[in-house]
What does this fold into?
Amino acid sequence: MSDDKEEKKSFFGRLKQETKPQVKEKSPEKEETKDTPEEKKTTSPKKEEWLKEEEGQLSIDVYQTPQEIVIMSTIAGVKPEDIDVSINDDMVTIKGERKKDVEVSDEDYFYQECYWGKFSRSVILPQEIEVNRVKAEIEDGILTVRLPKSEKAKSRKIQVEAK
It folds into this structure.
């Protein structure tokens, strides 16, 4: 459980650009500095580029009914035209961007927990769907993608007859 806590701190630290990376080996693009004898920090000019290019992962719920597979996600603050839902083979990909309307300097924040920027999520579908009947809608900040199951993929019971 403590490992999960460390990973979460590391993730949020990366978002706030306050990471404490683990020092493994020296590399030519990293520069080491000593703050205290016990603690070493590494800085990398590529790290800031990585943070700007990183996409957030969209949280989703996926469930099925007898007729369809449903994907739901909270996407508050995103306009429908800023969301792209695409289906390729057996995978659904949802991409978008949550844009920040105001510029606030880092030192003026008391809390900064909301994710702003590009996000995406891909889901492998457990069975075939009818692509032409897929529907996606946003209501009250919740995206719902309805994927009708293919009739071909539905199983049916066959009666075995005696001769």
